[in-house]
Amino acid sequence: MKLEEKLKEELKAIENNELKREINELRFISPTVAIDKNNKKYTVFASNNYLGLTHHPNVIEEAKKACNFGTGSTGSRLTTGTSFEALELEKKLANFKHTESSLIFNTGYMTNLGVLYALTDPNDIIFSDALNHASIIDGCKITKATVKIYKHKDIEDLENKIQETDNRKLEETSQKFIVTDGIFSMDGDIAPLPELVKIAKKYNCCLIIDDAHAVGVIGKNGSGTASYFGLEKEVDIQIGTLSKALASEGGYVAGKQVFIDYLINKSRPFIFSTALSPSTIASAKEALAILENNSNYYLEKLSNNTKMMRKLLEEGGLAIVDGETPIIPIIIGSAGLATEFADTLLNKGILVSAIRPPSVPKGSSRLRLTISAAHSSEQIVNAGKIIIETWKKIKNKRNL
Ligand SMILES: *Cc1c(COP(=O)(O)O)cnc(C)c1O
């Protein structure tokens, strides 16, 4: 069979299962409002712009200024791609995370690949939460280490799996790693860090936490999950992204200097990819400064907005996953129904993502709302009303 025919058949099957993915064109005219090609406006509850800093005048200004140093970096970090701004940002990130050092990668995705790939050997074992982000899953896939998946947030299962391997004869140099999302990207729940720290200590594991959704959202100054639990000194490696609350692009890893030195020498996604552009770095740096200088304001606004939307949806009878983070999943079940719900909302000017397999397990398709500090109360109340009404109509139509 010709490759094209085979792919067409597979695409058809994806479509038949109501799982076809398509790219939508959008232009953000503010952190929470986007327009399409026909100038139709959408209130967006689907971006990771937790603090709305993508449109902050100072962030834009710093990005523009940095364009004077070139629009592209044109080299990898180890050749010509390390700008003054990159080193300054790394210092600031280390400071923010209370670690000795930090290292920027080109995306959060590449950070997970680059860290897991470089730090693990064939004799090592990685214990990974079942609901970890795809980039951690893919990072585990490309390592030569053994990977054990423990049930989501299930400390007992994790400990059992560690004990099973401890009973096996490990090489003297073998290392054990525990890797987890800080805030889980699809359910919005928080990792049980105090228990994970205990287990990591008891069994001598290196603990890695991915705070992509936690920075700017929880912890002191919005510095993430470790800080939220007061455990900054107990987590070995903290990974994050510059692309969500920090309003830019890129990823980073923060930890002891020895980890960073090793990654600079061994991490292929770091070594063999062109560095981020000066303006990308400059905008992340300014967003971080704004967060640090105004964290009370932003975190309070985000938390109030989150509470308001959660309360509205709960009172409207929607099956939202309980929690406190700005990721609000409304569990629907079938992929087709979730898509219908999201499409109807889109027609009404509300942009919310329908999340379907393989992003979530089969039968747990959902609408996934993300709240921003930049949403106004009016936007939240209005969207909440429309979401509740729309769901009632869909349910009636289908006799659910
Ligand atoms: C978004 C996300 C990433 C990827 O970060 P990018 O900078 O978008 O590549 C990694 N891990 C988690 C948990 C995420 O939510």
Give a written overview of the molecule.
This protein has 400 residues and is an alpha/beta fold. Helix content is 43%, strand content 16%. The protein contains 14 helices and 14 strands. It has a 7-stranded mixed beta sheet, with helices on both faces. Strands 1-2-3-12 form a 4-stranded mixed beta sheet. Helix 3 runs parallel beside helix 11 and helix 12 (295-315) packs parallel to helix 14. The radius of gyration is 22 Å and the shape is globular. It starts with a helix and ends with a helix. It binds pyridoxal-5'-phosphate. Pyridoxal-5'-phosphate is lined by residues 107-109, 112, 133, 135, 181, 185, 210, 212-213, 241, 243, 251.
Summarize this structure briefly.
The chain has helices at 3-16, 57-66, 84-97, 108-119, 134-142, 155-167, 193-202, 225-228, 257-266, 268-271, 278-293, 295-315, 335-347, 377-398, and strands at 27-28, 33-35, 41-44, 101-105, 125-129, 146-150, 176-181, 205-210, 237-241, 251-255, 327-333, 350-351, 353-355, 365-370. With 400 residues, the protein is of the alpha/beta class. Strands 4-10-9-8-7-5-6 form a 7-stranded mixed sheet, with helices on both faces.
